[in-house]
Amino acid sequence: MADKVEFELVSPEKLLKSQPVDMVVVPGSEGDFGVLAGHSPMISTVRPGVIDVYEGDRVVDRVFVAGGFAEVTEARCTVLAEEAVALTDLDRATVEKQIKDLSEDVDDSKSDAERAAAESKLAVARAKLDALTQSSAH
Amino acid sequence: MPNLKDLKNRIASVQSTRKITSAMKMVAASKLRRAQEQAEASGPYAERMGRMLSSLAANVQDSGNGPKLMTGTGADQVHLLVVISSDRGLCGAFNGSIVREAKRQIVRLQGEGKTVKLLTVGRKGRDQLKREFASLIVESYEDVGRRRLGFSDADMVATKVLSMFDAGEFDVCSVIFNKFKSAISQVVTVQQLIPFAVATEAAEAAGAEAKAMYEFEPDEEQILAELLPRNLSIQIYRALLESAASEQGARMTAMDNATRNAGDMINKLTITYNRTRQAYITKELIEIISGAEAL
């Protein structure tokens, strides 16, 4: 595979990654999709999950994103992430504690708006845990 | 004849003031550099977001029923002004010019018979606007990004604006902030956030190629419905960053001037001090000589 796709990961605070890679797998809200060079252009929302960066057949980088948007063109794949953490930087105990705290927040919330906000945070934390479970199963 | 001791005290106090102002200038300079770096770092995200938005907007405009954040409520009656100022003073005309522009806008809008609501960020702006327009202020934030300005700070403001918009509390939202031009010049800028105006030329240019190109997943409207609130946060974040950089720039300039003025003052005072001392000596000599002559 000679052609590479330019992968960019951007958070509001900075440009996190910009490098040519062989393939990226992005957790789209309607299902994961892999991007190779020459992918047809598309724009998709991203659900909380893990982006896998492939170099050849190997996964060289796994990054957790808490949702965002992805723009794919033939030569480029740009992910606008709301929050991005390398999977290796996530700590299981911390995440479990977060889930516990957030579940309490959901129960304690008084208004619908508060509940919705807490629930969306909870979903992100759960996705983090899933990602950790999966990666340790590998 | 001025008292020698008073003069000495005066010189000492001006000297310590100069020390403080020059230290503040250095601090502002280093903070300015950090703020500028941060502002630059947020550039790529905003730029790509803008690109996606304009290609999306081009697609949705055709169908004619875009989300309210873009098309507006159809009314133009209630205006929300987000006024971004600083928490601390000693930064020259920084807060003054923001408040002056805000007042001008308020008077203009009220003159047109519109209702104005204010949301202030920063203590200084709130304090100054409170004197005249206390009843208009719906919410104010302080200590935003005191340590380090994060995206979450902007998100907090944006969430409030959005919840007000959803509750139908205003029709048009603009933000007033100091745009950073250089360390010595800041430009007061008024930018409309809601309804969001996509740069039309860019949208048309991007639209022409985008329409044929992109697939959307899920459909355009849904993506746009998620993208627009995010874009609001980004715009506010950018405004906060610009304002933070401007504040430090303004403070640096103000402190530089203050240091220079203190230096001039010290020189003048020292001259007066020396002259006075000389005068005293001369006077004493005359007294001694005339005393000796009288004998």
Automatic annotation (TrEMBL), chain A:
<keyword id="KW-0139">CF(1)</keyword>
<keyword id="KW-0813">Transport</keyword>
<dbReference type="GO" id="GO:0012505">
    <property type="term" value="C:endomembrane system"/>
</dbReference>
<dbReference type="InterPro" id="IPR001469">
    <property type="entry name" value="ATP_synth_F1_dsu/esu"/>
</dbReference>
<comment type="similarity">
    <text>Belongs to the ATPase epsilon chain family.</text>
</comment>
<dbReference type="GO" id="GO:0045259">
    <property type="term" value="C:proton-transporting ATP synthase complex"/>
</dbReference>
<feature type="domain" description="ATP synthase F1 complex delta/epsilon subunit N-terminal">
    <location>
        <begin position="6"/>
        <end position="84"/>
    </location>
</feature>
<keyword id="KW-0066">ATP synthesis</keyword>
<comment type="subunit">
    <text>F-type ATPases have 2 components, CF(1) - the catalytic core - and CF(0) - the membrane proton channel. CF(1) has five subunits: alpha(3), beta(3), gamma(1), delta(1), epsilon(1). CF(0) has three main subunits: a, b and c.</text>
</comment>
<feature type="coiled-coil region">
    <location>
        <begin position="92"/>
        <end position="135"/>
    </location>
</feature>
<dbReference type="InterPro" id="IPR036771">
    <property type="entry name" value="ATPsynth_dsu/esu_N"/>
</dbReference>
<protein>
    <recommendedName>
        <fullName>ATP synthase epsilon chain</fullName>
    </recommendedName>
</protein>
<comment type="function">
    <text>Produces ATP from ADP in the presence of a proton gradient across the membrane.</text>
</comment>
<keyword id="KW-0175">Coiled coil</keyword>
<dbReference type="InterPro" id="IPR020546">
    <property type="entry name" value="ATP_synth_F1_dsu/esu_N"/>
</dbReference>
<keyword id="KW-0406">Ion transport</keyword>
<keyword id="KW-1003">Cell membrane</keyword>
<dbReference type="GO" id="GO:0005886">
    <property type="term" value="C:plasma membrane"/>
</dbReference>
<keyword id="KW-0472">Membrane</keyword>
<dbReference type="GO" id="GO:0005524">
    <property type="term" value="F:ATP binding"/>
</dbReference>
<dbReference type="GO" id="GO:0046933">
    <property type="term" value="F:proton-transporting ATP synthase activity, rotational mechanism"/>
</dbReference>
<keyword id="KW-0375">Hydrogen ion transport</keyword>
From TrEMBL, chain B:
<dbReference type="Pfam" id="PF00231">
    <property type="entry name" value="ATP-synt"/>
</dbReference>
<keyword id="KW-0406">Ion transport</keyword>
<dbReference type="GO" id="GO:0045259">
    <property type="term" value="C:proton-transporting ATP synthase complex"/>
</dbReference>
<dbReference type="GO" id="GO:0005886">
    <property type="term" value="C:plasma membrane"/>
</dbReference>
<keyword id="KW-0139">CF(1)</keyword>
<comment type="function">
    <text>Produces ATP from ADP in the presence of a proton gradient across the membrane. The gamma chain is believed to be important in regulating ATPase activity and the flow of protons through the CF(0) complex.</text>
</comment>
<keyword id="KW-1003">Cell membrane</keyword>
<comment type="subunit">
    <text>F-type ATPases have 2 components, CF(1) - the catalytic core - and CF(0) - the membrane proton channel. CF(1) has five subunits: alpha(3), beta(3), gamma(1), delta(1), epsilon(1). CF(0) has three main subunits: a, b and c.</text>
</comment>
<dbReference type="InterPro" id="IPR035968">
    <property type="entry name" value="ATP_synth_F1_ATPase_gsu"/>
</dbReference>
<dbReference type="GO" id="GO:0042777">
    <property type="term" value="P:proton motive force-driven plasma membrane ATP synthesis"/>
</dbReference>
<dbReference type="InterPro" id="IPR023632">
    <property type="entry name" value="ATP_synth_F1_gsu_CS"/>
</dbReference>
<keyword id="KW-0375">Hydrogen ion transport</keyword>
<comment type="similarity">
    <text>Belongs to the ATPase gamma chain family.</text>
</comment>
<keyword id="KW-0472">Membrane</keyword>
<dbReference type="GO" id="GO:0046933">
    <property type="term" value="F:proton-transporting ATP synthase activity, rotational mechanism"/>
</dbReference>
<keyword id="KW-0813">Transport</keyword>
<protein>
    <recommendedName>
        <fullName>ATP synthase gamma chain</fullName>
    </recommendedName>
</protein>
<dbReference type="InterPro" id="IPR000131">
    <property type="entry name" value="ATP_synth_F1_gsu"/>
</dbReference>
<keyword id="KW-0066">ATP synthesis</keyword>
<dbReference type="GO" id="GO:0005524">
    <property type="term" value="F:ATP binding"/>
</dbReference>
